[in-house]
Amino acid sequence: MLSTNSTAAFNNVFLFLLVISVVLLVSITFTMIYFVFKYNRKKNPIPVNIESHLLLEITWIVIPTALVLAMFYYGWSGFTAMRTVPPDAMTVKATGRLWSWQFEYENGIKSGELKVPRGKPVKLLITSQDVLHSLFIPAFRIKEDAVPGRETFLWFLPEKEGEYDLFCSEYCGVQHSSMISKVIVTNEDDFQAWYSAEGRKEPGAKADEKLSGYALLEDKGCLDCHSVDGTIEVGPSFKGLFNRKVQVTSSGKERELVADETYIKNSILHPDADVVKGFDDIMPSQEGNVTNEEVDVIIGYLKELK
User: Fold this and answer.
1) 293-303 pLDDT, tens digit each
2) Deepest of 3, 51, 176, 268, by most Cβ within 10 A of its Cβ?
3) Helix, strand or coil for residue 296?
4) For 232-251, what is each residue's pLDDT tens digit?
5) CA 236, CA 243: separation in Å to the nearest integer?
6) Top-tier CATH class for 6-83
7) pTM of the predicted protein model
8) Can you say how many angstroms the Cα of residue 284 is from the centroid of all Cα atoms in its chain?
């Protein structure tokens, strides 16, 4: 397990590598400049054969070897600690999607922000809903790819309360730069109060009792590309969409459709079938991400969004 000051430990490794790099840079540069003057052609018009120097050769073999072994030791120690998850770690599933993060807890809570208690190890099970993403939390010195169809993991120990930035560090499309979330570290009591209260909302509830249409759009990441106020973003706005005529491209041909229940459901589950004119075909299918019940709730909300 990492020490209680794990971030400082990783900082020390980077500092160690930095110091070695600077020392080598200065030493080599100084030696090159020194040789330029010492062995200048004007001072040495007649070439002289320089015999080997055993001590010098041993030195430049032993010192680099020792440095490389030291780097390997620090790197291996850090890697081993990063991949050895403490048995008491809290598990949270992190899903990357175009273009937001969703965090799902063991009691069913889903959140767009990662909320964790101070002093408790956290294990993230990471995957992607669509394309390659990479979960990066600079404050904790951790980063791991989110790969479609595969589950990766990492863990960290939040030691101080506060809010920390969480980014996607793998270019994933036009809204990559806005794929930003937060790690919110609170004390144990505040976290348990939130965790228990949110958890009670889930079991046995119907979709419309769990989340409103707007909350579902937010929870599923729809509002990262679509607005509800008429603003045009990556995708068309939901405002006034229901029963409106839309121009789409279907199998390379343009046609006009009415945005009724069938069209909206098909756009959610098979977005590449009818692409709205003027927008790119970049929306991933939401099959497996939404249930039929949730689709009905979303459609009901869009009917009222005049």
Assistant:
1) 888 899 888 88
2) 268
3) helix
4) 888 888 888 888 898 888 88
5) 14
6) mainly alpha
7) 0.69
8) 18
Over residues 195-219, mean pLDDT: 63
Region(s) of the chain under CATH 1.10.760.10: 208-304
What class, spelled out in words, does domain 208-304 have in CATH?
Answer: mainly alpha
By the 8 A CB rule, do 98 and 172 touch? yes
pLDDT in tens, 51-109: 788 898 998 899 999 999 998 988 888 788 888 899 999 999 999 988 889 899 988 88
Fold designation for 90-199: Immunoglobulin-like (2.60.40)
What are the tokens at 100? 């937001």
Is the CB of residue 179 less than 8 Å from the CB of residue 167?
yes
What does the alpha-carbon distance between residue 58 and residue 56 come to, in Å, rounded to a whole number? 5
Give the CB-side neighbour count of residue 151, counting CA atoms within 13 A.
6
- pLDDT at residue 6 in the model: 61
Q: Are 242 and 302 in contact (CB under 8 A)?
A: yes
3-state secondary structure of 102: strand
Handedness of CA 78, 84, 86, 89 (dihedral sign): positive
